[in-house]
Amino acid sequence: MKKSLVTAGLTALLAISMTACSNNTTGTTGSTTTQPPASSSSSTAPASSSSTKAAASGYSLVPKDTNGDGLITLGFAQVGAESGWRTANTQSYKDYFVEKNGFKLVFADANQDADKQKQDVRDLIAQGVEVIDLAPVTDSGWEPVLQEAKNAGIPLIVSDRQLSVSDDLYLTYFGGNMKQEGDNAVKWLEDYIAKNNVTGPINIVHLQGTMGSTAQKGRSQALTDALAKHSDWKVVYEQTGEFTQAKGQEVMESFLQQNKDFNVIYSENDDMTYGAIDAMKNAGKDPKAPIIISFDGNKSAVQMVIDGYIDVIAECNPLLGPQVGDLIKKAKAGETIPKITYSVEGVIDSANAAEKIKTAFGS
Ligand code: AHR
Q1: Which one is the CATH code of 47-175+318-344: 3.80.30.20, 3.40.50.2300, 3.50.50.60, 3.30.420.10?
Q2: What average pLDDT does the segment 95-116 reach?
Q3: Residue 161 CA: which ligand 1 atom is closest?
Protein backbone atom coordinates (compact mmCIF):
# COMPACT_ATOMS: atom_id res chain seq x y z
CA MET A 1 0.00 0.00 0.00
CA LYS A 2 1.19 3.52 -0.77
CA LYS A 3 0.54 6.62 1.26
CA SER A 4 0.44 9.93 -0.53
CA LEU A 5 0.08 13.63 0.18
CA VAL A 6 -3.58 14.44 -0.29
CA THR A 7 -4.15 17.67 -2.17
CA ALA A 8 -7.23 19.47 -3.34
CA GLY A 9 -7.28 17.74 -6.70
CA LEU A 10 -4.04 15.76 -6.89
CA THR A 11 -3.41 12.77 -4.67
CA ALA A 12 0.06 11.58 -5.55
CA LEU A 13 2.58 14.28 -4.70
CA LEU A 14 4.26 12.36 -1.93
CA ALA A 15 4.52 8.60 -2.13
CA ILE A 16 5.45 6.74 1.02
CA SER A 17 6.05 3.02 1.15
CA MET A 18 3.91 1.29 3.78
CA THR A 19 5.86 -1.94 3.78
CA ALA A 20 8.15 -1.22 6.69
CA CYS A 21 5.90 -0.04 9.49
CA SER A 22 7.46 0.42 12.87
CA ASN A 23 6.85 -2.37 15.29
CA ASN A 24 6.48 -0.47 18.52
CA THR A 25 4.40 -3.04 20.33
CA THR A 26 5.24 -2.48 23.95
CA GLY A 27 2.71 -3.28 26.60
CA THR A 28 -0.34 -5.46 26.89
CA THR A 29 -3.82 -4.09 27.21
CA GLY A 30 -5.09 -4.92 30.66
CA SER A 31 -1.80 -4.93 32.52
CA THR A 32 -0.84 -1.97 34.65
CA THR A 33 2.05 0.05 35.93
CA THR A 34 1.98 1.76 39.28
CA GLN A 35 3.10 5.28 40.05
CA PRO A 36 4.02 7.03 43.28
CA PRO A 37 1.63 9.57 44.80
CA ALA A 38 1.24 12.72 42.72
CA SER A 39 3.19 14.66 45.31
CA SER A 40 6.22 12.44 44.69
CA SER A 41 8.29 12.11 41.53
CA SER A 42 6.16 11.19 38.51
CA SER A 43 8.66 8.73 37.09
CA THR A 44 7.91 5.02 37.07
CA ALA A 45 9.01 3.24 40.21
CA PRO A 46 8.98 -0.41 41.24
CA ALA A 47 5.63 -1.49 42.67
CA SER A 48 7.07 -1.93 46.12
CA SER A 49 8.25 1.66 46.37
CA SER A 50 5.44 3.23 44.34
CA SER A 51 2.57 1.77 46.33
CA THR A 52 1.35 3.77 49.25
CA LYS A 53 -1.32 3.65 51.93
CA ALA A 54 -4.20 5.90 50.98
CA ALA A 55 -3.58 7.73 54.24
CA ALA A 56 -0.01 8.53 53.22
CA SER A 57 -1.20 11.26 50.84
CA GLY A 58 -3.49 12.79 53.46
CA TYR A 59 -6.50 10.76 52.32
CA SER A 60 -7.79 8.66 55.19
CA LEU A 61 -11.08 7.26 53.88
CA VAL A 62 -11.34 3.55 53.15
CA PRO A 63 -14.27 1.76 51.49
CA LYS A 64 -16.75 0.37 54.05
CA ASP A 65 -20.07 -1.46 53.98
CA THR A 66 -21.75 1.35 55.93
CA ASN A 67 -25.33 0.04 55.60
CA GLY A 68 -24.29 -3.47 56.61
CA ASP A 69 -25.99 -5.21 53.67
CA GLY A 70 -22.88 -7.23 52.89
CA LEU A 71 -22.28 -5.37 49.63
CA ILE A 72 -20.37 -2.24 48.64
CA THR A 73 -22.58 0.20 46.73
CA LEU A 74 -20.50 1.89 44.04
CA GLY A 75 -21.82 5.09 42.53
CA PHE A 76 -20.27 5.38 39.07
CA ALA A 77 -20.26 8.91 37.60
CA GLN A 78 -19.70 8.09 33.94
CA VAL A 79 -18.81 10.56 31.16
CA GLY A 80 -21.55 9.56 28.72
CA ALA A 81 -21.96 7.23 25.76
CA GLU A 82 -19.99 9.12 23.13
CA SER A 83 -17.78 6.34 21.79
CA GLY A 84 -17.21 2.63 21.38
CA TRP A 85 -14.54 2.93 24.07
CA ARG A 86 -17.13 4.40 26.45
CA THR A 87 -19.65 1.65 25.71
CA ALA A 88 -17.03 -0.99 26.51
CA ASN A 89 -16.00 0.89 29.67
CA THR A 90 -19.58 1.11 30.95
CA GLN A 91 -20.18 -2.56 30.17
CA SER A 92 -17.09 -3.62 32.11
CA TYR A 93 -18.50 -1.84 35.20
CA LYS A 94 -22.00 -3.29 34.69
CA ASP A 95 -20.55 -6.78 34.32
CA TYR A 96 -18.22 -6.58 37.32
CA PHE A 97 -20.09 -4.54 39.96
CA VAL A 98 -22.74 -7.16 40.74
CA GLU A 99 -23.77 -9.04 43.88
CA LYS A 100 -21.70 -12.13 43.20
CA ASN A 101 -18.58 -9.94 43.32
CA GLY A 102 -19.77 -8.18 46.50
CA PHE A 103 -21.06 -4.97 44.89
CA LYS A 104 -24.14 -3.01 43.88
CA LEU A 105 -23.85 -0.40 41.10
CA VAL A 106 -25.61 2.96 40.90
CA PHE A 107 -24.93 4.41 37.45
CA ALA A 108 -25.03 8.10 36.49
CA ASP A 109 -24.55 9.21 32.85
CA ALA A 110 -23.35 12.81 32.46
CA ASN A 111 -24.04 12.89 28.73
CA GLN A 112 -20.63 14.59 28.19
CA ASP A 113 -21.79 17.57 30.27
CA ALA A 114 -19.20 18.57 32.90
CA ASP A 115 -21.71 20.63 34.94
CA LYS A 116 -24.29 17.84 34.95
CA GLN A 117 -21.58 15.45 36.10
CA LYS A 118 -20.82 17.59 39.15
CA GLN A 119 -24.52 17.40 40.02
CA ASP A 120 -24.44 13.63 39.39
CA VAL A 121 -21.69 13.23 42.01
CA ARG A 122 -23.65 15.39 44.46
CA ASP A 123 -26.70 13.17 43.87
CA LEU A 124 -24.61 10.05 44.54
CA ILE A 125 -23.39 11.61 47.80
CA ALA A 126 -27.01 12.42 48.77
CA GLN A 127 -28.04 8.83 48.02
CA GLY A 128 -25.38 7.61 50.46
CA VAL A 129 -23.44 5.33 48.11
CA GLU A 130 -20.46 3.72 49.85
CA VAL A 131 -17.79 4.45 47.22
CA ILE A 132 -17.80 6.82 44.23
CA ASP A 133 -15.96 6.19 40.98
CA LEU A 134 -15.61 9.37 38.94
CA ALA A 135 -14.61 9.19 35.26
CA PRO A 136 -14.44 12.96 34.73
CA VAL A 137 -15.66 14.67 31.55
CA THR A 138 -13.14 17.48 32.11
CA ASP A 139 -10.37 17.85 34.66
CA SER A 140 -11.07 21.20 36.34
CA GLY A 141 -13.40 22.69 38.93
CA TRP A 142 -13.73 19.52 40.99
CA GLU A 143 -12.35 20.63 44.40
CA PRO A 144 -15.69 21.60 46.05
CA VAL A 145 -17.46 18.40 44.94
CA LEU A 146 -14.58 16.16 45.99
CA GLN A 147 -14.41 17.95 49.33
CA GLU A 148 -18.16 17.31 49.78
CA ALA A 149 -17.64 13.58 49.14
CA LYS A 150 -14.75 13.56 51.61
CA ASN A 151 -16.79 15.43 54.23
CA ALA A 152 -19.57 12.85 53.76
CA GLY A 153 -17.03 10.06 54.44
CA ILE A 154 -17.42 8.56 50.96
CA PRO A 155 -14.14 7.38 49.40
CA LEU A 156 -13.75 8.60 45.82
CA ILE A 157 -11.82 6.87 43.06
CA VAL A 158 -10.86 8.68 39.87
CA SER A 159 -10.80 6.46 36.79
CA ASP A 160 -10.15 6.74 33.04
CA ARG A 161 -9.16 10.45 33.03
CA GLN A 162 -7.15 12.26 35.70
CA LEU A 163 -8.07 15.44 37.57
CA SER A 164 -6.23 18.69 38.28
CA VAL A 165 -6.75 18.48 42.04
CA SER A 166 -4.67 17.84 45.12
CA ASP A 167 -4.24 14.10 45.67
CA ASP A 168 -5.61 14.32 49.20
CA LEU A 169 -9.08 14.68 47.66
CA TYR A 170 -9.28 11.16 46.22
CA LEU A 171 -8.30 7.63 47.13
CA THR A 172 -6.62 6.49 43.92
CA TYR A 173 -6.48 6.99 40.15
CA PHE A 174 -6.80 4.07 37.77
CA GLY A 175 -6.71 4.35 33.96
CA GLY A 176 -4.72 5.51 30.98
CA ASN A 177 -1.69 7.78 30.88
CA MET A 178 -3.01 10.03 28.13
CA LYS A 179 0.23 11.93 27.51
CA GLN A 180 2.09 8.62 27.20
CA GLU A 181 -0.53 7.42 24.69
CA GLY A 182 0.11 10.56 22.63
CA ASP A 183 3.87 10.07 22.93
CA ASN A 184 3.43 6.46 21.71
CA ALA A 185 1.56 7.72 18.62
CA VAL A 186 4.13 10.44 17.89
CA LYS A 187 7.03 8.00 18.30
CA TRP A 188 5.38 5.66 15.82
CA LEU A 189 5.11 8.51 13.28
CA GLU A 190 8.74 9.56 13.83
CA ASP A 191 9.90 5.97 13.32
CA TYR A 192 7.71 5.59 10.24
CA ILE A 193 9.10 8.77 8.66
CA ALA A 194 12.68 7.72 9.40
CA LYS A 195 12.27 4.15 8.15
CA ASN A 196 10.54 5.22 4.95
CA ASN A 197 12.81 8.22 4.22
CA VAL A 198 9.80 10.49 4.05
CA THR A 199 10.83 13.96 2.98
CA GLY A 200 8.86 17.14 2.65
CA PRO A 201 6.33 18.75 4.92
CA ILE A 202 4.21 16.71 7.28
CA ASN A 203 0.83 18.46 7.13
CA ILE A 204 -1.34 17.26 9.96
CA VAL A 205 -5.10 17.37 10.42
CA HIS A 206 -5.66 17.26 14.17
CA LEU A 207 -9.05 16.04 15.39
CA GLN A 208 -9.23 16.71 19.11
CA GLY A 209 -11.36 15.00 21.73
CA THR A 210 -13.51 16.71 24.33
CA MET A 211 -11.69 19.94 25.16
CA GLY A 212 -10.50 20.06 28.77
CA SER A 213 -10.56 16.28 29.26
CA THR A 214 -7.19 14.81 30.16
CA ALA A 215 -7.66 12.41 27.23
CA GLN A 216 -7.61 15.43 24.90
CA LYS A 217 -5.03 17.41 26.84
CA GLY A 218 -2.47 14.60 27.06
CA ARG A 219 -2.82 13.48 23.45
CA SER A 220 -2.80 17.07 22.14
CA GLN A 221 0.22 17.94 24.31
CA ALA A 222 2.19 15.05 22.80
CA LEU A 223 1.55 16.48 19.33
CA THR A 224 2.44 20.01 20.46
CA ASP A 225 5.73 18.68 21.86
CA ALA A 226 6.44 16.90 18.57
CA LEU A 227 5.78 20.07 16.55
CA ALA A 228 8.38 21.87 18.65
CA LYS A 229 10.91 19.17 17.75
CA HIS A 230 10.18 18.89 14.02
CA SER A 231 10.30 22.10 12.00
CA ASP A 232 8.78 20.40 8.94
CA TRP A 233 5.67 19.21 10.85
CA LYS A 234 2.71 21.57 10.68
CA VAL A 235 -0.89 21.37 11.89
CA VAL A 236 -2.99 22.56 8.94
CA TYR A 237 -6.32 22.13 10.72
CA GLU A 238 -7.28 21.60 14.35
CA GLN A 239 -10.80 21.19 15.62
CA THR A 240 -12.62 19.24 18.29
CA GLY A 241 -14.74 16.32 17.17
CA GLU A 242 -15.82 15.74 20.81
CA PHE A 243 -14.85 12.06 20.62
CA THR A 244 -17.93 11.26 18.48
CA GLN A 245 -18.15 9.79 14.99
CA ALA A 246 -20.77 12.33 13.85
CA LYS A 247 -18.76 15.34 14.95
CA GLY A 248 -15.52 13.82 13.62
CA GLN A 249 -17.17 13.48 10.22
CA GLU A 250 -18.59 17.00 10.39
CA VAL A 251 -15.25 18.70 11.20
CA MET A 252 -13.40 16.64 8.58
CA GLU A 253 -16.01 17.67 6.01
CA SER A 254 -15.45 21.34 6.79
CA PHE A 255 -11.70 20.85 6.54
CA LEU A 256 -11.98 19.13 3.14
CA GLN A 257 -14.00 22.07 1.85
CA GLN A 258 -10.94 24.25 2.43
CA ASN A 259 -9.01 22.29 -0.22
CA LYS A 260 -5.76 22.28 1.78
CA ASP A 261 -2.94 19.76 1.46
CA PHE A 262 -2.55 17.18 4.20
CA ASN A 263 -0.78 13.86 4.58
CA VAL A 264 -1.44 12.89 8.22
CA ILE A 265 -4.61 12.67 10.29
CA TYR A 266 -4.01 12.64 14.07
CA SER A 267 -7.41 11.70 15.44
CA GLU A 268 -7.74 11.43 19.21
CA ASN A 269 -10.14 8.49 19.13
CA ASP A 270 -11.39 5.72 16.84
CA ASP A 271 -14.90 7.12 16.53
CA MET A 272 -13.69 10.43 15.10
CA THR A 273 -11.41 8.43 12.82
CA TYR A 274 -14.40 6.52 11.42
CA GLY A 275 -16.11 9.88 10.82
CA ALA A 276 -13.04 11.34 9.10
CA ILE A 277 -12.74 8.30 6.83
CA ASP A 278 -16.44 8.56 5.90
CA ALA A 279 -15.98 12.27 5.15
CA MET A 280 -13.09 11.46 2.81
CA LYS A 281 -15.03 8.71 1.05
CA ASN A 282 -18.04 11.01 0.61
CA ALA A 283 -15.79 13.73 -0.82
CA GLY A 284 -14.28 11.29 -3.33
CA LYS A 285 -10.87 11.28 -1.59
CA ASP A 286 -8.88 8.11 -1.06
CA PRO A 287 -8.97 7.44 2.71
CA LYS A 288 -5.93 5.19 2.38
CA ALA A 289 -3.79 8.07 1.08
CA PRO A 290 -2.95 9.91 4.32
CA ILE A 291 -1.22 8.34 7.31
CA ILE A 292 -4.03 7.88 9.83
CA ILE A 293 -3.18 7.85 13.52
CA SER A 294 -5.98 6.89 15.89
CA PHE A 295 -6.46 6.18 19.60
CA ASP A 296 -8.30 3.44 21.58
CA GLY A 297 -8.25 0.07 19.78
CA ASN A 298 -11.87 -0.94 19.17
CA LYS A 299 -12.14 -4.23 17.28
CA SER A 300 -13.53 -2.48 14.17
CA ALA A 301 -10.64 0.01 14.21
CA VAL A 302 -8.11 -2.81 14.49
CA GLN A 303 -9.83 -4.41 11.49
CA MET A 304 -9.30 -1.10 9.67
CA VAL A 305 -5.58 -1.37 10.43
CA ILE A 306 -5.61 -4.82 8.86
CA ASP A 307 -7.54 -3.44 5.88
CA GLY A 308 -5.06 -0.58 5.43
CA TYR A 309 -7.27 2.39 6.35
CA ILE A 310 -5.75 3.18 9.75
CA ASP A 311 -1.97 3.06 10.10
CA VAL A 312 -1.56 3.04 13.85
CA ILE A 313 -3.72 3.03 16.96
CA ALA A 314 -2.33 4.16 20.31
CA GLU A 315 -4.03 1.81 22.74
CA CYS A 316 -6.33 2.98 25.53
CA ASN A 317 -7.81 0.22 27.65
CA PRO A 318 -11.50 0.66 28.64
CA LEU A 319 -11.92 -2.60 30.57
CA LEU A 320 -11.32 -1.04 33.97
CA GLY A 321 -14.22 -2.44 36.03
CA PRO A 322 -12.58 -5.57 37.48
CA GLN A 323 -9.33 -3.78 38.22
CA VAL A 324 -11.08 -0.91 40.00
CA GLY A 325 -13.09 -3.53 41.93
CA ASP A 326 -9.87 -5.22 42.97
CA LEU A 327 -8.44 -1.92 44.25
CA ILE A 328 -11.60 -1.26 46.27
CA LYS A 329 -11.41 -4.71 47.86
CA LYS A 330 -7.74 -4.25 48.72
CA ALA A 331 -8.30 -0.80 50.22
CA LYS A 332 -11.29 -2.12 52.21
CA ALA A 333 -9.07 -4.90 53.60
CA GLY A 334 -6.54 -2.29 54.72
CA GLU A 335 -4.01 -3.23 52.07
CA THR A 336 -1.63 -0.75 50.54
CA ILE A 337 -2.82 0.52 47.18
CA PRO A 338 -0.99 2.82 44.78
CA LYS A 339 -2.09 6.42 44.44
CA ILE A 340 -1.89 6.14 40.65
CA THR A 341 -2.09 3.04 38.48
CA TYR A 342 -1.68 3.47 34.73
CA SER A 343 -2.79 0.83 32.24
CA VAL A 344 0.19 -0.38 30.25
CA GLU A 345 -0.57 0.48 26.64
CA GLY A 346 1.32 0.22 23.38
CA VAL A 347 0.46 0.68 19.73
CA ILE A 348 -1.33 -1.42 17.13
CA ASP A 349 -0.09 -1.29 13.56
CA SER A 350 0.22 -3.63 10.60
CA ALA A 351 2.88 -5.63 12.43
CA ASN A 352 0.65 -6.80 15.30
CA ALA A 353 -2.97 -6.05 14.31
CA ALA A 354 -3.77 -9.66 13.38
CA GLU A 355 -2.75 -10.73 16.88
CA LYS A 356 -4.30 -7.75 18.68
CA ILE A 357 -7.71 -8.20 17.05
CA LYS A 358 -8.14 -11.51 18.90
CA THR A 359 -8.44 -9.67 22.23
CA ALA A 360 -9.70 -6.26 21.07
CA PHE A 361 -12.71 -4.78 22.88
CA GLY A 362 -16.08 -3.87 21.36
CA SER A 363 -17.35 -4.82 17.97
O1 AHR B 1 -11.03 8.94 28.17
C2 AHR B 1 -10.92 7.96 27.21
C3 AHR B 1 -11.41 8.50 25.91
O4 AHR B 1 -12.78 8.85 26.02
C5 AHR B 1 -11.37 7.55 24.75
O6 AHR B 1 -10.21 7.65 24.00
C7 AHR B 1 -12.50 8.04 23.93
O8 AHR B 1 -12.88 7.15 22.92
C9 AHR B 1 -13.50 8.28 24.97
O10 AHR B 1 -14.62 8.93 24.60
Answers
A1: 3.40.50.2300
A2: 98
A3: 1
